[in-house]
């Protein structure tokens, strides 16, 4: 496991202690963070019963066909409080669902092709950030480049960024921001997938950064996961990303390599933040957020918890972090595992990746017949509350 460099505040606190004389007064450390009245270090969000938001027929009638085929990213329009859910669906089109104020239904939707043909754009995404000062909506997406001459392998996936100036009615592809170190897919067990680009905004030394989390495949087969990083992270300063978007250019990201951020986002080597599969499961489509109440980051991701049964058992796993780099062992969101055979794409109703309060709402893709995700898809909501972590045990 990579030994990461600790964040700057630890060193700063040690320096402050050293600078104090023997008779100097040392300030008491801050009170431990809490999560809605509970010790944040031993609390988590847990899920209750699911309720139906949109049936398969409703989704199709709104032209939300095969939606969501990605994480769902939420944003609230500041002038009227309208809440939108963004994600990808049929043919890789970007879909915007307008939710009712109570979040219990979808009242309208639009569907926008990202590009004129499949070769130019075929992928998914969803996580969004709204820059109110410039009226920009930014989305991290993934692009799937098919290799028709290499039939066993589906795609080489890279992460891109797109921008909208009209709240998702139209989108502009800014280009690639993150790619694997490996460039050629030659092993079906090391598929060049990358996830859906879940991100948070993390401030360091007064500078806010986008931290984008992704799968990453290395050129060699070393490491705990045979050359595959379960979860890596790349960052770019928020101001730099916005400046690039205003200039219709791809922003420049750098990967965390275990000690710093010098590796390029495109083709650089990254460290694995969650290398132990028995601790974290298969992370895949990680969806991170900042929780001010706890002063910590939380991430959700669907994962098979038992794959040697038919149909397999799924759950949404949850992990917490103080710095966006070191993540706690995973726990389950649901006390009872879910029976199904497809990814359970999720999204949390949180503007700009910030969960406010103690009872966030999680939305999830759900299928009424596991034989086909797209012929039987529905959208459900699960209200979360603060409780004791539900242990995750690999394989059962």
Number of strands: 25
Percent of residues in helices: under 10%
Q: Low-confidence parts lasting 5 or more residues at pLDDT below 50?
A: 1-25
Number of DSSP helices? Answer: 4
SSE arrangement, N to C: HEEEHEEEEEEEEEEEHEEHEEEEEEEEE
CATH architecture: 5 Propeller
Strand content: 35-45%
What structural class results from the helix and strand content?
Answer: mainly beta
End-to-end gap: 24 Å
Please give the domain count.
1
Shape estimate:
globular
User: What is the assigned CATH homologous superfamily?
Assistant: Glycosyl hydrolase domain, family 43
Biggest beta-sheet profile: 6 strands, antiparallel
CATH class: Mainly Beta
Structural Rg: 21 Å
Considering the chains and any ligands shown, give keywords for the structure.
396 residues; Tachylectin-2, Chain A; 8% helix; mainly beta; 25 strands; disordered N terminus; 40% strand; globular; five-stranded antiparallel β-sheet; six-stranded antiparallel β-sheet
